[in-house]
Amino acid sequence: MAPLIASCVGETIKSDNDQAIVPWWSITKTALSACALRLAAGDRLELDRALPGRQYTLRQLLQHTSGLGCYTDTPDYEAAVDGHAEPWSVEQHARFAGGPPSFEPSRGWKYSNSGYFLVRSLIEQATGMDIGRALKSLVLSPLGIERSFVATTRADLQHSVFGDEDNFHPGWVAHGLLMGPPSEVASFMHRLFTGALLPAQLIAAMRERHPVETDLTGRPWRTAGYGLGLMIDIASPHGLCIGHSGQGPASVSAAYHFPDLSPPVTVAAFAPTDDQGVAERAVLEEAARLR
Description:
The structure is a single chain. By secondary structure, the chain is an alpha+beta fold. It has helices at 28-41, 58-63, 75-82, 90-97, 113-127, 131-140, 154-157, 182-194, 200-207, 276-290, and strands spanning 4-9, 12-15, 22-23, 149-151, 177-180, 210-211, 225-226, 231-236, 239-248, 251-258, 265-271. The relative contact order is 0.20. The protein has a single domain, classed as DD-peptidase/beta-lactamase superfamily (Beta-lactamase). Strands 2-1-11-10-9-8-7-6 form an eight-stranded antiparallel β-sheet, with helices on both faces. A three-stranded antiparallel β-sheet has the order 3-5-4.
């Protein structure tokens, strides 16, 4: 199956199949970052104050520089998912996140789904809402994203156009898993950076790049960096490239915005594979066609 592609150029939105429902996977992190930054803009969260009893800040959680480990890297996680076990409780995730750090905050970089579990928790505490309602109220609805939702059951994930043959429970995505039409993923990423959801200084903070040393074998990127909920390539074939990729059982996702193109272009791609490079290359190829 060829990747499903959706794109935005100016106000024009196109999609291969807008009736399809796809998992956002870790593109959800960009939505969580935008939500946390909206709360920071309203003084309901603080970016640079250490969390109570912790050494790291919200900014460091969003940029993966907190030093926290990642529960999805553990044998326990792999065994539980392979055995179709129920997801960990909030208390289990909190205990894991409270473990010894890999490094002192801002002294390294490590991709951490556990860090984004804490971001979710901070958002829910600040708003008094579950993450689905918080994202809808603060990010999705203001951007005109109305059909996407946070999956909470195995039945939800079975609505994916790619199915859920592994019987994966979306609760294992501890920070929350958005699902929706491909066009809404592209629209979300496009409107986030071309609209007025966040003040200019917070958009700039999102785009502030922390260089990342990582193996890019099989990936189309020329440089690797991470902002606040954003993967960043500063030397893509189309100039600056900001967005996020994701992977889960049965499919991958990628949604990237190219602000250096005139007009700016955003492309999202989704494919039934475990190779994120497939979706990322589809994004770059479609952006080349649209420029």
